[in-house]
Amino acid sequence: MSLIEAIIIGIIQGATEFLPVSSSGHAVLLPEIFGITNPTLTEVVVAHLGTLVAILIVFWRDLWHIAVAVLRGIVDRSPLGTLDSRLGWFILIGSIPAALAGFFFESWFEDVFGNPTAAAFFLLVTAGLLVLGERLRTGTKPLENMGWTDAIVVGLFQMFALLPGISRSGSTITGGLIRGLTRETATRYSFLLGAPIIFGAGMLGLLDLRDVPNLSAEIPVLLTIFITSAVVGLVCIVFLLRWVRKHSLIPFAVYCALLGGGYLLFAVIL
Asked: How much is the pTM?
């Protein structure tokens, strides 16, 4: 892989991991459309580590306070005594559906992931979810008023993101909007909910790097992917948090519909 391709891979991963347009859908479709070299497992792992750094830079204070509050709540026998401790348990509960689905149906999801037609179709589903979330949005519930049902519903929406083309951030934000969270609150919770998944994927990927032959020869490309993914991811997190304060998610829905529908039109129908 050339350095130019490494930059492209980093940009794609950094942007699509956080914007509600599906990183998995882009990972499947863009190599098919533009003839980009498919990244190796090592390169995918490094790209995810870049996005992990991005989310830690933006949310490290939130995550630290949540972790401390959960531990303090356990020690004090008051696990739900503060907002941060409740949020920690909500994140745990919300992560369970996707974890269970991934564990029991891993082979099925892997088969679907290699299908560009499926990825294009599910991009259309993402577009529909974003529109649905905006149509059903009431936007009155702040983070302080979140409950267990909200956490479970958003977690179920996150489970659907195991399918290629279903945006994790898009589906979880939609789940939050349907449950009455404000757009900004739903987006922030979506990022916090995604932190354990991104962290887990990154740590498992690091274990795989030990078995990569001639790893040192790939350092320039891997470093380029890592830095690009981290920088672009950081920019996109900040951008989306600011965007949702005054704007809807419809432009992202239009983009997903154009990409998914365009692929189906030209690659399948024609």
From this structure: 0.88
